[in-house]
């Protein structure tokens, strides 16, 4: 017999033994201990503590009848079963069944089950218990797994969760209940969309306005005093907390009638566009009908704006100015709206001081401000100049002075930029001994960046260093507010880092650091290079990458540097960015410049008028309070 035949015989023997074992034994040889029959909950003899769950989906007064009918019905149901004891009726009014959020009575009922205060729950339908499949099935399983188990009786569907065949029916009906909520949600959203498309907006109660019989907003002059005071105080420089304290002290009432104000409630009023007569519909939306959590609408859904929808309490320009101030406050900006200034005379002519805490200015604003002082187009750097060579001088034509950027950065006057912050080199800050604050300026046309000493109190002052034991140590300057604009002015890529070498210009009384952004080192991550090479895009036509060592950051230089080591000796001896200082005897480097007013500037109420309005409103309100 070969191996295959032995294997076949072994398998056949195993099958025969299994057949013999499963023939079983004589039934008379077994004693059967019967299971306790499943209890009929309606005719059982065991006492049961019953909790009833009732829910109505809105708090409309007309729904009160539904709740009362449910309550009366289940009191009768429990009373007809002598072994049932009604512990409590748990009722949620005006609450959706798709989520447990705010369903306080439901949560209390489940807690009582876990505390063994209930033996059974009765509710009208699966939809009343929960319109969320996970909640419905999850709690049914959790309660059934307790010791002793707790069942849920869904009266309309005649489902009792402790019955072994209940889960399939319960799952099916719970799914239908959830889908019904989904359908209702879609219908509601479609209805709202159709209303908004036709300019039919929701007009909930709003401080400063009443609603007429058609729902239109009509100014309530008594409440409007509070609204005007809030806007004027914020425009004048008061914080939202100070405004809240003032209104609380004056006893002014919110729309619901409260006299205690908070900073957040003030901010909500300041950001509500309805006070300037506009309506913006769908600022938020609910992406998930199950959890009902609203989300800020960042163009995820259609929005609808109607200007001049109703009479305004605050002028549109004042409202827009407040929005700019609120946005600016994120970066530490305070007070009346800042304004760009441009230097009209001296060596810094055309330079615009940079406000480090103001994010409201765009690249075009700086360009327009700088160009406003020139008769024609704002100038760019002229790199040409005649050089006179005296008899006996060495002829250095053809010789180049190697660029400092090719050597170590130590000891160089540099400033490094990324989209979030800028940092000056140690050598840079030491050029202004014991000076911890500076003011930054930019010339958009010449692509120049400059730095001058400033006091801490100066309007555009920023701390760039700290002094330790008499030594100036660089300090990173946060630029989240203004650096995106600087990058746009210099045509820089926000994904890269830039380093610019500068010069110290100094006379008997003035010092200025000048940086020419035409000669810029670019630091590009190896990942960015790889991603660019795998795409059809190029990094830039004006830079050529050179690198050595580990590829953490690839250093790139202007492409026209690839054919030489530096500037021609005579060209290098004349630095075009310094020409203004060489040709101007009076630098006027500390000039604060002239305010630049654009045709697009907001016509904001003047500080003097704002102050008068604040004083007048507060005085009138105090007089009214005394007469009450």
Quick structural overview:
The chain has 628 residues and is an alpha+beta fold. Helices cover 32% and strands 20% of the residues.
Q: Keyphrases for this structure?
A:
alpha+beta; single chain; Rossmann fold; 5-stranded mixed beta sheet; Hect, E3 ligase catalytic domain fold; 32% helix; 17 helices; flat; 628 residues; 11-stranded antiparallel beta sheet
Description of the molecule:
- The protein is α+β, with helices and mostly antiparallel strands.
- Among the domains are: 48-181, 3-Layer(aba) Sandwich (Rossmann fold), CATH 3.40.50; 209-329, Hect, E3 ligase catalytic domain fold, CATH 3.90.1750; 352-388 and 411-522 and 575-592, no CATH class.
- The chain is built from 17 helices and 28 strands.
- It is flat, with a radius of gyration of 39 Å.
- The N and C termini lie far apart (118 Å).
The low-confidence runs, each spanning 5 or more residues with pLDDT under 50, are none
Give the mean pLDDT.
79
- Supply the number of helical segments: 17
Helix proportion range: 25-40%
Measured distance between first and last alpha carbons? 118 Å
Q: What radius of gyration results from the CA coordinates?
A: 39 Å
Give a count of the beta strands, DSSP E runs of length 2 or more: 28
- Based on secondary structure, the structural category is alpha+beta
User: From the structure provided, what is the oligomeric state, counting identical versus distinct chains?
Assistant: single chain
Largest sheet: 11 strands, antiparallel
Assign an overall shape. Answer: flat
Provide the β-strand percentage band.
15-25%
């Amino acid at each position: 017999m070969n191996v295959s035949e032995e294997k076949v015989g072994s398998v056949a023997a195993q099958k025969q033994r299994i057949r013999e074992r499963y023939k079983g034994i004589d039934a008379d040889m077994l004693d059967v201990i019967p299971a306790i029959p499943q209890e009929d909950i309606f005719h059982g003899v065991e006492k049961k503590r019953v909790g009833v769950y009732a829910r109505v989906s809105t708090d409309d007064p007309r729904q009160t009848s539904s709740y009362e009918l449910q309550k009366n019905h289940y009191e009768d149901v429990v009373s007809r079963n002598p072994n049932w004891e009604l512990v409590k009726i748990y009722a949620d009014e005006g609450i959706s069944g798709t989520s447990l959020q705010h369903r306080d009575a439901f949560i209390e009922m489940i807690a009582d089950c876990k505390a063994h205060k209930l033996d059974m729950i009765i509710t009208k339908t699966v939809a009343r218990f929960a319109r969320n499949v996970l909640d419905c099935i999850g709690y049914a399983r959790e309660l059934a797994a307790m010791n002793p188990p707790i069942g849920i009786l869904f009266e309309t569907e005649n489902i009792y969760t402790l019955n072994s065949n209940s889960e399939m029916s319960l799952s099916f009906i719970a799914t239908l209940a959830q889908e019904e909520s989904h359908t209702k949600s879609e219908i509601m959203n479609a209805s709202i969309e159709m209303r908004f498309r036709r300019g039919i907006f929701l007009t909930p109660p709003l401080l400063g306005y009443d609603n007429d019989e058609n729902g239109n907003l009509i100014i309530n002059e008594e409440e409007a005093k509070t609204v005007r005071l809030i806007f004027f105080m914020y425009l004048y420089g008061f914080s939202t907390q100070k405004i809240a304290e003032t209104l609380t002290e004056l006893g002014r009432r919110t729309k619901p009638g409260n006299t205690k104000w908070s900073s957040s409630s003030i901010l909500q009023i300041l950001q509500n566009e309805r006070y300037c007569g506009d309506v913006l519909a769908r600022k938020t939306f609910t992406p998930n009908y199950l959890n009902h959590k609203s989300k800020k609408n960042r163009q995820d859904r259609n929005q609808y704006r109607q200007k001049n929808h109703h009479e305004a309490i605050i002028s549109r320009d004042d409202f827009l100015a407040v929005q700019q101030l609120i946005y600016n406050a994120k970066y530490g900006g305070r007070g009346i709206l800042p304004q760009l200034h441009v230097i009209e005379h001296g060596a810094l002519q055309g330079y615009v001081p940079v406000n480090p805490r103001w994010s409201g200015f765009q690249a075009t604003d700086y360009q327009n401000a700088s160009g406003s002082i020139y008769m024609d187009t704002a100038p760019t750097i002229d790199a040409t100049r005649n050089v006179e060579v005296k008899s006996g001088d060495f002829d250095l034509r053809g010789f180049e002075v190697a660029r400092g950027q090719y050597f170590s950065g130590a000891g160089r006057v540099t400033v490094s930029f990324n989209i979030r912050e800028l940092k000056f080199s140690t050598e840079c800050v030491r050029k202004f001994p014991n000076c911890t604050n500076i003011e930054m300026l930019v010339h958009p046309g010449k692509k120049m960046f400059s730095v001058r000493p400033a006091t801490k109190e100066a309007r555009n002052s920023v701390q760039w260093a700290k002094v330790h034991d008499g030594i100036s140590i660089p300090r990173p300057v946060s630029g989240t507010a203004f650096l995106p604009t600087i990058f746009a002015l210099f045509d820089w890529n926000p994904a890269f880092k830039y380093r610019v070498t500068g010069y110290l210009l100094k006379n008997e009384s003035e010092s200025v650091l000048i940086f020419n952004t035409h000669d810029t080192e670019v630091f590009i991550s190896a990942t960015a290079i790889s991603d660019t090479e795998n795409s059809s895009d190029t990094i830039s036509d004006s830079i050529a990458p050179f690198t050595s060592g580990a590829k953490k950051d690839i250093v790139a230089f202007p492409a026209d540097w690839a054919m030489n080591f530096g500037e021609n000796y005579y060209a290098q001896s004349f630095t075009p960015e310094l020409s203004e200082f060489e040709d101007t005897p009076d630098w006027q480097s500390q000039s604060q410049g002239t305010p630049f007013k654009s045709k697009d500037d907001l016509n904001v109420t003047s500080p003097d008028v704002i102050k008068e309005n604040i004083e007048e409103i507060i005085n009138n309100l105090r007089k009214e309070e005394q007469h009450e």
